[in-house]
Amino acid sequence: DTGVSQNPRHKITKRGQNVTFRCDPISEHNRLYWYRQTLGQGPEFLTYFQNEAQLEKSRLLSDRFSAERPKGSFSTLEIQRTEQGDSAMYLCASSLAGGGDTQYFGPGTRLTVL
Amino acid sequence: RKEVEQDPGPFNVPEGATVAFNCTYSNSASQSFFWYRQDCRKEPKLLMSVYSSGNEDGRFTAQLNRASQYISLLIRDSKLSDSATYLCVLGDTGTASKLTFGTGTRLQVTL
Hints:
heterodimer; A: 114 residues; B: mainly beta
């Protein structure tokens, strides 16, 4: 399967714990995005990488959130000291700049904070 | 005011019906427009891009009206498999190309 993959698919954690999610984009894609989706809402942009550089972060991304893409390939999103309001689906997407830039989404990681 | 507004539905239509969704957007500088489809508990998937000249893909027709800042999606001859949430999406005007999604319109096609 050459699509975007995300791990884990589901994560249940207790409030106050740290969690980390991983996204593997389509191999030749140089752009990678993180979005968050809560029930009944559309996805909301969190942050964006071009290669290894994090070029934009949403105001939604509090200082408890950090994202990395160290080698310009896979990316990780870490949430520290989770809160119940962090419960959501975290979606990763990738695209090829200059290649129409269509964003292809991974299956998401569903986070539940108890 | 939300950047992208959609009627959440649900739209319940019989198989074979024609159904239309509209969405309005507030950023007049928006440059790119899309419809994404999202099945329950799945990721969004691009259905089609939307151009000012209108574009058609099989049973699906999308239209953009820049003057009125609205986008439409028409589905003809609805199939049971069209049941999903349809997300109206704007592409960023900057270099990031981040997407701004509406809340989605839920469609349920019935026998």
